[in-house]
Design a protein that fits this description.
Layout: E1 4-10, H1 16-30, E2 37-43, H2 55-63, H3 80-83, E3 86-89, H4 92-100
Parallel strand pairs: 1-2, 1-3
Length: about 110
């Protein structure tokens, strides 16, 4: 069975999308499905490129037993739509930004 590649997208890639990325990765691992799911996240803006996730996000993940190490925020890339099987926008504004970019983020 092929691995499904899923990308979560929010504005800055420091709160919502990394939370979704790490929760899904954790859930897949708990169910023995890690070999079937690849998760990642990105932002529609590059405001926080290279930064760690928000401390509140990290604390919430930790409170639920989810390690949040090794994260570095990034902006969505031009090649992402071709690489991922599913791109999930975290809100309507993020979706509109993705649609307006004509699948060619900078």
């Amino acid at each position: 069975m092929n691995k499904r590649r899923i990308l979560f997208v929010c504005l800055g890639n420091i709160c919502r999308s990394p939370m979704a990325e790490y929760v899904l990765r954790h859930q897949a691992a708990e169910r023995g499905l890690s070999r079937l799911v690849e998760t990642a996240s990105a932002g529609t803006s590059g405001w926080h490129d290279g930064e760690d996730m928000h401390r509140g996000t990290k604390a919430e993940l930790k409170a639920h037993g989810i390690a949040a190490d090794g994260f570095s925020s990034r902006k969505i890339r031009r090649e992402d739509p071709a690489h991922y099987d599913l791109i999930i926008a975290m809100d309507d504004d993020n979706l509109a930004e993705l649609e307006n970019s004509s699948n060619s983020p900078t």
